[in-house]
Sequence to fold (366 residues):
Amino acid sequence: MVKITAAVAVKPKAPLEFRELELADPEGNEILVRTVATGICHTDLLLRDGIFGPPAPVIPGHEGVGIVEAIGADVQGLRVGDHVALSQSSCGFCGDCRRSHPMNCQNYTQYNLTGLRPNGKKALLCDEVGIGSNFVGQSSFATHILATENNAAQLPKDFDLTNAAPLGCGMATGAGTVINAMKPEIGQTIAVFGAGAVGMAAVMAAKVRRCSKIIIIDLNEQRLAMAKTLGATHAINGRDPDVVEQIHALTGGGADFGIDAVGIIPVILNTIKCTRAGGHVVLLGLDALGKDIPIPLDLMVFNRKIQGAILGDQIPQLFIPQLVELNQAGLFPFQKLITKYPFEKINEAIADAEAGRVIKPVIVFN
Ligand SMILES: [Zn+2]
Ligand SMILES: [Zn+2]
Fold:
């Protein structure tokens, strides 16, 4: 057992509350990680607001990085002292895991969203309230995390952990969508709607894949300017009435690829409409969860493809080290997106993120 301090979501829109709790020792393939940093992602706020995941009270956080402090008896690939970035968890034995798509794991809910450990036990001891844990296989808004070997990717020890936090979700999602799901050929074109962390990661990955036109669309002029420093070749303000026409003009008839990293219906429809016949669209924004998208059938006739790509369809243990490699080569400079806060200021960090003042807040633990 280890004593921890956690920031707990208690009710929608309310500030997180700090609680002193006791975290169980790792069993089986579990690992105990001392948290060095965690990103704050929009999905944590959907959890706080009761839109996604187990009900409050619950510990959010799913971009945890840290140092392995203890391991369960069945852990094979990690040792005490290893540096890890945590991502979404998976079982390792279902059909999708065996087909190398662990982000689709058929046991996804059991491993990520029950508020309990995958083995069904409580992670938090002596907790009479029943605070949920193991959100996305971690619950990283706490000084220690009980994760599993399956959702931990090892990092080189010379890589700054306080910069590594967004790798497990935001960076994996944006970059994985381009590199794993879209696989553009050299010279193809892409439009990315939404210049948040996920959209910026997609822009950087599109540059890595040598896309010839990388078009970013957002309402925030500062973010559009930043996207251009990261690889966007063109920027369009989303308030323009002719966004789709501008993209068709820039790409000679429509982009090869379109990414929605916003999640509201009109933007999703523009993402589809801006692609050419045969275009490939990936929808990543989650704000319209539970709603229907009215897609004109005319848009589907000529081999357009629309898909989701949760966590960039990655295998964390393979993909996160690839992103580190790109970063160290100067090709994926995602630390430019980060604003760091001490753990005590987590509510300030969330407020700044919700107001659009920062792109990727990262909480750093002492
Ligand atoms: Zn996330
Ligand atoms: Zn599985």
In short: Residues 90-91, 94, 96-97, 105-107 surround zinc ion (ligand 2) (CB under 6 Å).
